[in-house]
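#structure-requests
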Amino acid sequence: MSRKISRFVRERVRKRANYLCEYCHTNERWQLVQFTIDHVLPTKQGGDDSLDNLALACFHCNRRKSDKQFIGKTPLFNPRVLSWSEHFFWSADGLQILPKTEIGRATIELLELNRDRALLIRFDDAQINRHPPADDPVQSPD
């Protein structure tokens, strides 16, 4: 059964996320299509349509995550209960997402957060000062 999340709830999710994919931190504002609404805990596993279970996700991250919650015994990043900056940071050039924790490492691996296409988009956005997001931690240059 397909579930429809209201426009009002979708917009609240977008605003709460500051229009960033809550996994890869790509900015929806510069994309050609709106991002999807992800059920952090999939509905098949008992998740619901409440704001506490919804996250903004680009198509790629949502598709790769699917209904997965773990890699082996390591949980994936949950944007409703965890802070992005506690689990990830940007490489000094702002192109690659690096892990701070095992949760970060597992999420980067499963969602392929540093895939070639993402790196190209980030590079182009960095050239015009649209990337990385201003509040995200960045690796200090050596």
